């Protein structure tokens, strides 16, 4: 997961610190595997994006940071597979989800695999149609719809050839 998400998650319900270093509930410093420069740079970006603010000599999550967390948590919503393994592969899905939405892109690819879609190229997949309505409604809710195009194929794609 991205560092911004991890930092916000650690700040969500905690204000524990030891000598200015944020710690988990056991007092163990977090983010030991990240360099000071990486943490400092990420914190600066988060402050600029309005996710965190510094007052009383301590960093706090802002309402904007909480909203970002809610979106990230919601982006992990899971949908059941309604397709049979041998369902005809007659829908092509093409997408171009920006790098800044990497988590959503990985979530989307994971669901395509779960729905028995096969990858033709990194962002071109073929599988059964139609995609579930609840899934497509959720795609619109998390603002991915404009990055995704679907095409109904005239005949089912055969991967055995």
Automatic annotation (TrEMBL):
<feature type="domain" description="Transcriptional repressor PaaX-like central Cas2-like">
    <location>
        <begin position="92"/>
        <end position="153"/>
    </location>
</feature>
<protein>
    <recommendedName>
        <fullName>Transcriptional repressor PaaX-like central Cas2-like domain-containing protein</fullName>
    </recommendedName>
</protein>
<dbReference type="Pfam" id="PF20803">
    <property type="entry name" value="PaaX_M"/>
</dbReference>
<dbReference type="InterPro" id="IPR048846">
    <property type="entry name" value="PaaX-like_central"/>
</dbReference>
